Structures are given as structure tokens and as C-alpha cells.
Amino acid sequence: PAVEYGLEAPFDVEYHESVPSTNAVARDLADDGASDVVVLADEQTGGRGRLDREWSSPSGGVWLSIVLRPDLPPARVPVITLAAAVAITDAAREAGVDAEIKWPNDVLVGERKLAGILTEMEGEADRVSWVIPGLGINANVDAEELPEGATSIQAEVGVIERRLFVQRLLERFDELRSDPEAVLDAWRERASTLGRDVRVETPDGVVEGEAIDVELPGTLLVETDDGVVRVHAGDCEHLRPA
Ligand code: BT5
Question: Which atom of ligand 1 is nearest to 136's Cα?
């Protein structure tokens, strides 16, 4: 059952001890007309990443989904995911974790993944009816419970007060969500991808080169041997240390 989380947040927060996926709960709320509601869980039993990958979600994490009804065409929605990545990074840094962003939506400590984002949407070509960014942050989780290559706030700096973390995260997200230019500037400042050699697997093939910039709504510019390529979606690998 959902309970109020008692946060002074810009969103209503509905808390669950365990759900299959907060994104699925949020979708049901969105279909019922909800807006600016956050679904938060301590544990997910069927957490999902992009492309239907598994997202491991043991008890102690921060697994949350935000129901939004922005006045945006679908093509501009990726900026919401960038805003979520900035908000996670800032909340993690306030907790003392040296977090950075890997394009498009991973939050890393060094090369280890601390958090990921899955954004879903529904609507018409000119305007979405809802957008749900789902944020998964390995908070008070033992790294042994996570897949290889992952880290947690607990592993980096010890156990944190999750309520405070969620509050800061949502406040920061709320500040950013209506200001795409500010999101882009903040994203650039926190990105570990820019200036690096990358290999991006896109739906249209592999792009390799130096990541030189990001532009709205979240497009990565990669300088390849054949010139600058704009990448809209894909999985990005950093090829060598910065
Ligand atoms: C993501 O996918 O990074 C998006 C994750 C979104 C999770 C949130 S939790 C709240 C909401 N409810 C959901 O059901 N989902 C959202 P992707 O970039 O595809 O990365 C997935 C890959 O990361 C997996 O294939 C694993 O290799 C790895 N992975 C799985 N669980 C992880 C974890 N807890 N920490 C770090 N890496 C993980």
C-alpha cells in the first residue's frame, strides 16, 4: 500500500515498500490523470532499464518515478532526462559522492554506475500527454548486491538519510525542469563524457570519435574521421581515461 512520505517537496510523494516497478505504478497514475506525483519504493521486484534490460533494485535504494504533464512535443522530452541526471548528480555530490554524468543518462563515480534513468512517455506528435522519468539510485545498498561495474552511495561514503536525499533531488529537478538552457549548461559542467574518446552504439550503427559537445534536446556531437556526427540515442562507452 502507498503511504505519504511526508516530504516538503514540490511533488506529492507516494511511498511503497515493494513494487514490481515504480514506472509501472506511475503509468497507472498517469492514465488516471495524475500530475506532479512521485512514486517512490524501497525495493523493486521487476525493475527495468532501457531496452527492457533488468534493473537490480534491492531494498535500501532510491527507486522513483515522476509523473509529469509538460507542454512539450515528444522530440523535446530528452531534456527532462538530462535534468534528472543533473539533479541526481547534485544530490549525490551534496552527500559527498564524486558523481559525474555519462551521456545520456548514467550517473557514474569514476567508471562505476551509481544511477540510471528510464524515461517513458505517451501522447501525440505535437504534445505529450505524460512523461515519466524513472530514476534508479543505488543509495543504501551494499555493492555486493549490485551487478559488476556498479557502485552505491553506501559503498562510496556510507549510509545516508534517504529522505533528505530525495528532498534535495526533487527540489533540484523542480528548479531545472522548465529551463532547458540551464539544464544544458549544468549538464555540460557535470559531464565526464565531453572531451573523451567514445564508442556509441546507436540504432543506426556504431559511432566512434571524440565527444565534443551536447546540444538540445540532448544530442551528443561526436567528432569522427568523417566529420561531426549527431547522436540522438544509444549506449555510450568511454574509451580511455579523461
Ligand atoms: C538504465 O538503463 O540505466 C535505467 C535504469 C532506470 C531504473 C529506474 S528505478 C525506478 C524506475 N523503475 C524502473 O523499473 N526503472 C526505473 P540502462 O542504461 O539500460 O542500464 C541497464 C544496465 O545497467 C543493466 O543491463 C545492467 O548491466 C546495469 N545495472 C542493472 N542494475 C543496476 C544497478 N542497480 N546499478 C548499476 N547498474 C545496474
Answer: 9
Query: What pLDDT, on the 0 to 100 scale, is given for residue 242?
Result: 57
How many folded domains does the chain comprise? Answer: 2
User: Cβ of 217: how many Cβ atoms within 10 Å?
Assistant: 20
Regarding an ipTM greater than 0.95, the answer is yes
Residue nearest atom 7 in ligand 1 by C-alpha distance: 136
Q: What is the pTM of this model?
A: 0.96
Nearest to 109 by CA among 141, 152, 148, 50: 152
Distance, CA 226 to ligand 1 centroid (Å)?
Answer: 33
Residues 217 and 176 in one domain: no
Residue-number span of the structural domain to which 18 is assigned: 3-190
11 lines ligand 1 (CB under 6 A): no
Check if the beta carbon of residue 23 is closer than 8 Å to that of residue 132.
yes
* 118-167 confidence digits (pLDDT tens): 999 999 999 999 999 999 999 999 999 999 999 999 999 999 999 999 99
